[in-house]
Amino acid sequence: MAPGPKKSDEYCAYAHFASDLELTGEDWLIAMFTAFFDDSGIHKDSEIAVAACYVSTNRGWGEFVKQWDNARWEEGFDVFHMAEFVAKPDQGHKPFCDWSNTKKDHVYNRLADIVNDNKRIGIACAVPKEAYDAIPEAIRDYHGHEHYTFAVRTCLRHIGDWREKSGITLPMRCVFDWQMANDEKRKEIGKIFAVMHETWEKRFGIEPGGYSFEHKDKFKPLQAADILAWQMNNHMRKILPIGHDC
Asked: Which residues, other chains included, contact 107 with Cβ-Cβ below 8 Å and sequence gap of 6+?
């Protein structure tokens, strides 16, 4: 299955986004956020809410997109969605359902190398819903009523710690998966940035409007975050039943 038009004819949403940042004359850090949407953090019957992000520089994500495009063309896929990739063949997710285990191992390892070669850091947070729901209402009024919002806040705090320990002062933007743009989640994510204290703006390098929602089929770095979100969800489903945490 070919992934569509030739690379030279294909619009790249990330390249457009990156070109605007380049006009500032500075390099930027960009945090790509997503969640595991298939049965973690979105569906009401899920026990866990997962948020995950990878952070890299504008240049790092630019190289990522080039290598990712080469991989999808040479391997024969368009959009990489981890849940579809690991699904049983009888679910019919093309082209992955037609691939052998050997082919899947090869592609997964190739994509993992692309991510690891170009990211600066990866962060994920899993929130057990039952535990979070037991938190007093006043605390949730501040941290967010959506489980996912709290997971995003936690990831942001870890990014701030990493920036501080590493002496990183580059400005930063956050990009969220479009699937997270439903009314309540978008409202609470917006509130995180709207009420961010000026000291936190400096710590993160983020201005109040320094975030956006993008479609991961066009904004390919979000597909890397999708892999990390799936891995965190898979890990938590194994350890929570036996009473372990991260």
From this structure: 71, 75, 77, 99
CATH number for the domain including 67?
3.30.420
Domain span holding position 166: 7-242
What is the C-alpha to C-alpha distance for residues 167 and 238, in angstroms, rounded to an integer?
36
Please give the pLDDT value at position 97: 96
With respect to residue 77, please indicate whether it lies within any of the assigned structural domains. yes
Is residue 77's pLDDT more than 50?
yes
Give the other-Cβ count within 10 Å of 199's Cβ.
8
What is the rounded CA–CA span in Å between residue 31 and residue 79? 20
Contact 82, 224 (CB under 8 A): no
Structure tokens at 94: 């093309």
Domain count, the chain: 1
Burial of residue 231, with CB atoms counted within 10 A of its CB: 0-12 exposed, 13-18 middle, 19 or more buried: middle
Query: Residue 108 and residue 81: Cα distance in Å, rounded?
Result: 11
Residue 159 inside a domain? The answer is: yes
Residue 207 domain-assigned?
A: yes
User: Before 136, cis peptide (omega within 30)?
Assistant: no
**201 within some domain:** yes
Question: Model confidence over 175-225: pLDDT tens digits?
Answer: 988 876 666 778 888 888 877 777 777 788 887 778 888 888 889 999 999
